[in-house]
Amino acid sequence: MSFDIAVTYRAGESAREFAVTSDAGLVAITGPSGIGKTTLLNCVAGLNRPLSGHVRIGGETLFDSAAGVDLPPERRRAGYVFQDLRLFPHRTVAANLAYGERAEAALMSRAEALDFLGIGHLARRYPATLSGGEAKRVAIGRALLSAPRFLLLDEPLTSLDSARAEEILRLLERIRDDLELPTLLVSHAAAEVERLAGEIVVLD
Amino acid sequence: MTAWPTPAEWGIVALSLKVSVLAVAVTLPFAYGLAWLLARRRFPGRILIDAAVHLPLVLPPVVTGWVLLLLFGRTGPLGHWLERTAGLVLVFRWTGAALAAAVMALPLMVRAMRLSIEAVDRRLVGAARTLGATPWRAFLTITLPLSLPGVMAGTMLGFARSLGEFGATITFASNIPGQTRTLPLAIYTGLQVPGAESEVARLAIISVLLSVAALLASELLVRRSHGRRAHVL
Question: What sections of A46-189 are H helices per DSSP?
Fold first, then answer.
């Protein structure tokens, strides 16, 4: 089972529930904004703590309130591509990519990743000088090089023009098909969700 | 007109620098720790720590000096303990002048550092954690470097405050030539003596030059490490 998640978590003022068990490689979570989709991803990454429930991905228990399991984020090995990217502003692209790099367990070498994402020529630039599409690809690269056990993608296509969005979509398809990482995708773009997801969960 | 600074003036400048450097160096880690606590943690008693740190900023410096005398005098609880365990006497020594300067510099240092720590986006720390960083590594690689301009600004402010410290120093460490007579105390002493106007003026000019040099040095340091648009002033 790739995903076995059932949590109650706090989003804003209210407590929300979310449950999915699925063998699909890519599960999309969709719903109106403000419903707590990002908070849910933060619960899976270990940045927020659910009120109760369990999070199991790829057979590994990351959180289980009944059993007292709550792995810190650094041991969950999420490849989290944040909606706001969160590239480190004081580090070059190369240093951002290297930050979480685990060469021994990596899905691909740094050279392969640079090639795969088409960001080799950006290595010495600082994040503030990148375009939106470039920054997004660097953020995806940084997540992939940390040898994640699963991916969390938060609105990966927002604020991109249609050509760039298509480019990132193709990239996500390649990640899904070539790397076979369990992936949770948060998006409110129906077309993107239809195209990528093996299973769709609607929050409301 | 004698060449200046004269050896006596050099002695005063050297003592002032020694006192201020020790004060700032010892205070730096405490100030950063306090700044981090106040910026990042919510705990009971936080407002009391905040108030205690800021107290030297609003109290008359003479009162701060008097409190130091009560605590660190040879019969005071901390002074007695320091002398018994480490053989360390602060009162009426240059190290005592450094303690007085440190206490007066602390609030300025904490304020500057706290502002810059608060300005570091906590979501970046979260991102570092998902990339495998322990809380300690995330602090060293994200929070600390991004708050460095505030550390430099705080250090500069603290150093300048230490160089100018008067009230707490004269109360706690007294005005002893070669031990605790720093620049401001020497200027004050000169003002008490008829006919010492030129000595006073020379020391005052040295004071101004030192302060300007400290300001420029920290401004250059910050620009060099954080680009031309960064500044501490």
Answer: 73-76, 93-99, 110-117, 132-145, 162-174
Is the Cα dihedral A164, A168, A173, A177 positive or negative?
positive
Q: Give the span between the Cα atoms of B31 and A67, in whole angstroms.
A: 41
The mean pLDDT of A150-175, rounded to a whole number, is 85
Q: In this prediction, does ipTM exceed 0.85?
A: yes
Question: Considering the entire predicted model, what is its pTM?
Answer: 0.85
Chain A nearest-CA distance from B232, in A, is 18
Range with the poorest average pLDDT among A51-60, A140-149, A161-170, B88-97: A161-170
Q: How many CB atoms lie within 10 A of CB B229?
A: 6
Task: Identify residue A18 by its one-letter amino acid code.
Answer: F
| DSSP labels, A20-81 | EEE--SEEEEE--TTSSHHHHHHHHHTSS--SEEEEEETTEEEEETTTTEE--HHHH-EEEE
Q: Please list, in sequence order, all residues whose beta carbon lies within 8 angstroms of the beta carbon of residue A197, skipping any fewer than 6 positions away.
A: A24, A26, A27, A28, A185
Query: B179 near B96, Cβ under 8 Å?
Result: no
| pLDDT at residue B75 is higher than 60 | yes
Chain A residues touching B128 at Cβ < 8 A? 88, 99-100
pLDDT in tens, B151-169: 988 999 899 999 999 999 9
Residues 35-94 of A with CB under 8 A from B: 42, 45-47, 72-74, 76-80, 82, 84, 86, 88-90
**A95 CB-near residues (< 8 Å, 6+ apart):** A88
Does A99 sit within 8 Å of B141, measured CB to CB? yes
Give me the phi and psi of B149, to 5 degrees please.
-55, -40
> Percentage of chain B surpassing pLDDT 70?
94
Gap between the Cα atoms of B114 and B116, Å rounded? 5
Q: Which residues pair with A184 in a beta bridge?
A: A27, A152
Give the rounded distance of the alpha carbon of B89 from its chain centre.
Answer: 20
Three-class SS of residue A71?
Answer: coil
